[in-house]
Amino acid sequence: MGVTATPVTGALGAVIDGTDPRDDDFDFDAVHAALLEHEVVFFRGLNLNEAEHLELGRRFGSPSVFPVARILGATEPTMTVIADGPESPNAADAWHTDVTWTATPPAYALLHMEEVPETGGDTLWASATKAYEALSPQMQEFLCGLTVIHDHEGFAQAVARKAGDAAATIIEGLDRDYPPVEHPMIRTHPENGRRGIFYAARFISHIKGMTESESDAIIRFVGEHIKDPRFHCRWKWGNGDLAIWDERATMHRAAADHWPQRRVVRRLEIDGDRPFFTADA
Ligand SMILES: [Fe+2]
Fold first, then answer.
1. Fewest Cβ atoms nearer than 10 Å: which of 103, 148, 174, 187?
2. 8 Å CB contact between 128 and 197
3. Is 27 a catalytic residue?
4. Does a structural domain hold residue 221?
5. What is the SS3 assignment for 184?
6. Cα distance between residue 125 and residue 97, in whole Å
7. Domain that holds residue 83
8. Helical pair 28-38 and 50-60, crossing angle rounded to 10 deg
9. How far is the centre of ligand 1, averaged over its atoms, from the C-alpha of 254 (Å)?
C-alpha cells in the first residue's frame, strides 16, 4: 500500500497514512508533496521521541535555533516545549505565522503532542493561499502593493508574563538582536509560486507609508477576513500526534479552551528564507 493523504477539510490539511518516518523506506517525497498541496499534514499516534522528531525535521531543512534559545546561549537546534497549565495559560490563541518578527521566519514547523488535555486544546490552521484567492482582484492588487512592519513587541509581552527570572535577559536580547522588519503583505511561495496573506496578529506593527488610521483599518480588515471558517481546518489531538505545517502558506492558533488543564507540546521549526513577493506570479 502506498502513502495516502486524506483531506481534513476542503480548505487545507490532510492525514497521512502508509508511511512511518522511522522506517527505512519512509516516503519523504510523498509527504513533502502532500505538504505542499495540503499545507498542513497530520500523523496520528506517531509517538516520536525527541531524536526522531529532530531527525524528521532535518529532512525538511535546517532545524532552527529558536530566537529565545539563541539569546540564552544555544547554538544547536532547539526543541521548544510549550507546557500550558493553571499557572501558564495558553498564549498562542490568536491567528499567526510563527516568529514573523525575524527577517527570515521559519519555513516549516513540526509539532508533537506530548500531553493532550482531557477536553479542548485543539489547534486551528488557516490557509493563507485560500484566503488570498477569495479576495476580489481589486483587493488582491491593492494588498499586493503593501509592505508591513513586524516587530517583537507582542512576543516580548508574552515572554514577560511567562519567562520568570529570564524575562529581562530575553527582552534585552530581543531589543538588541531583532529590530523591526519589513515583510510583504502578500508573499509568493518559494516552491510553488502560490500567493498567500502573510499575517501574524500580535507581531504586526503597521503598514509602511500609510497613516495610522489607514494602517489600522487594513490590518483589521485582513484580520477579520482570515477568520472565515471556510479557510480553516481544526485538529483534535491525540497523544503522540504530529502536525507538520508549511509556515509560508498557513496561519494557526491554539484554542485556549483547555485552561486550567495541562497541555504539553514539543515544537521544532525549520529555517526559512526571507519572504518575498513577485508581481509576475
Ligand atoms: Fe505558533
1. 103
2. yes
3. no
4. yes
5. strand
6. 10
7. 4-270
8. 70
9. 8
248, 252, 258, 266: the active-site residue: 252
Measured between alpha carbons, how far is 263 from 107 in angstroms, rounded to an integer? 25
For the record, the C-alpha cell of 49 comes out as 521521541
What is the SS3 assignment for 43-92? ECCCCCCHHHHHHHHHHHCCECCCHHHHHCCCCCCCCEEEEEECCECCCC
Give the count of domains, the chain: 1
Give the closest residue to 267 by CA, choosing from 44, 80, 26, 23: 80
pLDDT digits (tens, 9 = 90+) for 94-153: 999 999 999 999 999 999 999 999 999 999 999 999 999 999 999 999 999 999 999 999
**For the whole prediction, is pTM greater than 0.85?**
yes
Is 150 one of the annotated active-site residues of the chain?
no
Domain membership flag for residue 21: yes
Retrieve residue 64's grid coordinates: 532552527
Active site residue 96: yes
